[in-house]
Amino acid sequence: MNFLFQGLKTLGLVIFYAVFSISLTFYNKWILTGYPFPLAITMVHLIIKFLLAWVVRKITGCCCKEPPLTLSWSDYLRHIVPVALFSALDIGLSNWSLVFITVSLYTMSKSTALIFILFFAIVFKLEKPRFVQIGVVVLIVAGLFMFTFKSTSFALEGFILVLSASVITGLRWSTAQLTLQKEELGLWNPVDTMFYLQPVMILTLLPLAVFIDGVNIGTSAVVFRASFSTFTVTSLLIGAAALLAFMLGFSEYLLVYHTSSLTLSVAGVMKVSLLAVAARAT
User: SS3 string of 15-71?
Assistant: First the structure.
């Protein structure tokens, strides 16, 4: 009975994650066609996510009459900062790659993250190396690669970006699992995790955003010559994407806390499979 409950719980968490992940991937691709400033938009997402996490912590603190979780500087530097650095680079490079490549090529390339997640999970002793497990992962990645290969338009810049993001994904989620499952830190609530991660993520992406998007934004008629109504609609669209990103982050950290980074990677396989089908249908 307990096994059935755990299975249903994991399935529910996976579906929760997949819904927001798929939605955000297509929504970001659509946004970037009109506003090709991937890292600047990601910066806005991170700021809004931090503000939302701050508001939720304040509300829950008032309702539950308990002070929000507070981490010491030593714990913050040792456990939070590495996860935040890897998270910022993963998200930034992934979003940047969508400017150059199709969703199909993104899906094919990002599927390699499964290999890197398993590799770093073994390195950090989160998983024991098993030949069967490794073989299954390789077959899954090969299957996804062949499924999307013929429907892609190759672009070297985007491919390098998304492949780099896949490597960093392995580091991101392995270190995240190590941090979230340390009981002494008390990071069982995804809102607390996002609250502490966002400041470092913002500082990490800021130089990249200025370097990559600064000139384009400064010379863009879309940004500086837009009417008030256009500016309002754009703000609402980016705000909606930030809300999706907040819910995606919530679902990701919830899934990793209750299961493992490898479970998240399996959920990612389900997601990229659905993305591949949807991309070929559109």
Answer: HHHHHHHHHHHHHHHHHHHHCCCHHHHHHHHHHHHHHHHHHHHHHHHHHHCCCCCCC
Place of tokens 């819910």: 247
User: 131-149 and 261-281 helices cross at what angle (nearest 10)?
Assistant: 20
State the SS3 of 268-282. HHHHHHHHHHHHHHC
Q: pTM (2 decimals)?
A: 0.80
pLDDT digits (tens, 9 = 90+) for 137-175: 666 666 656 655 555 566 778 778 888 898 899 899 899
Question: Measuring CA to CA, how many Å separate 221 from each of 70, 151, 197?
Answer: 44, 34, 33
Task: Please state, in angstroms and rounded to a whole number, the distance separating the CA atoms of residues 109 and 163.
Answer: 6
d(CA 23, CA 19): 6
Residue 16: C-alpha distances to residues 10, 82, 152, 250 (Å): 10, 26, 28, 10
Write out pLDDT tens, residues 26-52.
888 788 777 778 888 888 899 999 999
Burial degree of 272 (CB within 10 A; 0-12, 13-18, 19+): buried
What is the phi-psi region of residue 65: left when phi exceeds 0, alpha when psi lies from -120 to 50, beta otherwise? left
Q: Would you say residue 253 has pLDDT above 70?
A: yes
Nearest by Cα to 145 from 246, 233, 273, 8: 273
Distance CA 56, CA 50 (A): 10
